[in-house]
Structures are given as structure tokens and as C-alpha cells.
Predict the structure.
Amino acid sequence: MQRGKDTKPHIGIYGRRNNGKSTLINTLAGHEIAIVSEVPGTTTDPVKKSFEITGFGPVVLIDTAGSDDTGSLGEKRTAKTLQTLKTVDLAILVITANSYDEPEKMLVAGFNKLELPFIIVHNKSDLEKLSASTREYIEKATGSVVIEFSSKTGEYPEEIISAIRSAIPESARTSTGLVGDLLSYGDIVLLITPIDVQAPAGRLILPQVQAIRDIIDNDCVAVVLKEREVDAFLRKTGIKPSLAITDSQIFVKADASVPADVPLTSFSIVLARHKGDFELYLKGTPRISGLRDGDRLLILESCTHHVSCDDIGRVKIPRWISNFTGKKLEFDVVGGLAEWPRPVTDYALVIQCGGCVITRRQLINRIRQAADAGVPVTNYGMAIAWVQGIYKRAVAPFTSSEESDDDYL
């Protein structure tokens, strides 16, 4: 799984080869979207299926290879299957024939390590019913109920749907909004959106679209304009926005144009609070000032896109941080959800993008690797604000007014 492209809840289907994982997916979808075969190992690599589960809502199901795959190739497939655990919000473990041994225990250990909620489905019950002793053993060992099911009966999997609804975190199904808690009815929000070579032709970038929708959803007014129109707009209209949100790349220009008594932040910082670990970023960002010659930084870009000559993650941020620190630094850039090129402890700092195209769980699991190793983490917008000298203003809308200047040093 190289990339995340969908913010709908992700559900992974796990289990041994030929346990009916693909058949279960087709049953949940109500039509055939996964290849089904009696030959073990038909599903070789994790495959995403996006659709709507009747009675639940839109989801992304991840069909995985069997956890009991053998041989050198099988080991690689199993490793890929385990990698998906970091990208899902809920796991469904499919078992058959009353079997719960090492392949299942390995998966459950992975679920528990990542604090990943899961349910267990005993499939193909038309061939062999779940015994009372097996049910008791599994439920005692895992703390999870076991649902008996067979796709052969043609029955709607109501019990499975109900279990999914109960087990999946509410945070994966609903959004708390980006800035709604900062606004009151009728507030005007200024969205400063430069149109440069990285902007998609005829469209706004996703964070800008998400911000507009959130503002409208909260019965407020979004005013969208380019950076060179800000001064004239404020002068001609006399409007005082309740909040201004800018693209991080033009922070300095926005800081100069937006009155000091108007809260100002960036789209990336809004996403950092909404989807990332904001407290972790607040602690990690000041570490930029302590970087030394030879330090290596990891830049995590959650989407993959065409790289321009002035790319924000690959060109501008490395240049700005190097100029700010005056140090000779090394930078690695990873796109999508690809593996990191080095051990996390090789890095002095990790810089995560806003993560607009991935789920919160995917992003949190991404940066947790650094946090667990004691490596500081920051966010694109927060890092840019720090090196451009406007960090305190940029994070002020989301932090306590009682914090002192020392809290940012």
C-alpha cells in the first residue's frame, strides 16, 4: 500500500488463504468486486475497494493476502499485509473450521500493538459450525466476540454490519470540522489562496475546498481571494474578518496584509490540529532552531504528485530551513505511505504535511514512529511559520491566550 487517497473509514480484511475474505467483501458490497477462487492465494497483494456498505455508509475495504502464505514470496506478501495495519481504522479477522492458531495469534498481536479495534468472523459455517469451546477460547483470548457467518446462505450480514458500526471509532466516521469551533454565526473568514504552478488547473487544492465547506457548514461566510488582492479588498470594503487562513508559502505577505488584531493561520496548520497530533507539533517545531551541521531531516508528503521546480516539500522547505539555521542539512522526502528510507533514529526532525488525502489514523500512525523514538515532529505550515518569524501568530488561534513567549522557544 504505497499511498492513501481516501479519507473514508478504512477496514482491513485479514485471515488465512482460502478463508473467504474476498467472498466476505463481495457479500458486504452486495455485488462482486473481489476475485473469488477456490485456489488458495488468489489475492496476492493488498487491494483497496471503495464502496458503500448498506446500513453503514461509504468505506474503503482492504483485501489482503493470506496470513499463512509460505515461501520467500509468501513472506513478502505477509509483510505487506501486516503493513496495512497502520492504514486501517478497523480490522476484520476471518477464520474457518474452528481454527485459531499462530496465523491468527500473529494478526491479533498486531491489532493490539497498534490499538486497532477488530472483530472476528467465523466464515463458512455452512461447512462447519463454530463450536462452543472454540468460541469460548477465542473470546477469552482476544476479548472480541466471534460472529458466525456463511456467504453461501445468501443472508444479509446484519450482525457483521452491526459489529462494524459498534467497533469502528466514531472519529473515523465523522469529522469535527476544521475551524467551526473558532467561529460564530455569520462570521467572515478570509481565505488567501495563491494560484501558482502547483495549483491544479481549474480547481483549488483540497485543503482550500475543505475549509470553504467547513465555513459554509457553520453558517459563516468564506471570502476567497489571491494574495495580491488582500490589501485592496480590506481597504475598499472596510470588512474586518473574524479569521484569515493563508497558504503557508505566502505567510510573510499575509502577515503584512492582515491586520494584527485579526487571527491568522494557514491551511496546513488548520489540518495539523484537525488531523495530526497538534501538541506533538507544538513541542517539535522549536527544535528547528537547534539543528546542527550534518543533521538529516525527513519530509513526509502524504500525497504523490508531479514535482515542480519550486515544490513546497522537496525544494522550498529544505531551502527555507537551511537558510534559517545556516547549517548544512540533509533531507529525505517520502511520498504517499511508502516506507522510510532509513531508521527513524537517523533523523533529527520529521516534517509532516497536512495530510488532507489520508485518514487521521494513517497520519497518526505515521508520525507515531518518530514520537516513540523520541524524534521531534513538526508540520509543514508550523515549520514555515517558525523560520519566517511568525510562528506565535500562526498558532495563536488554537492555543491558550495565557501562554507566554517562552512556550515557543
Summary: The first strand starts at residue 10 and ends at 15. The chain has three domains: 10-173, 180-270, 277-393. Residues 1-5, 39-43, 401-406 have pLDDT under 50 and may be disordered.
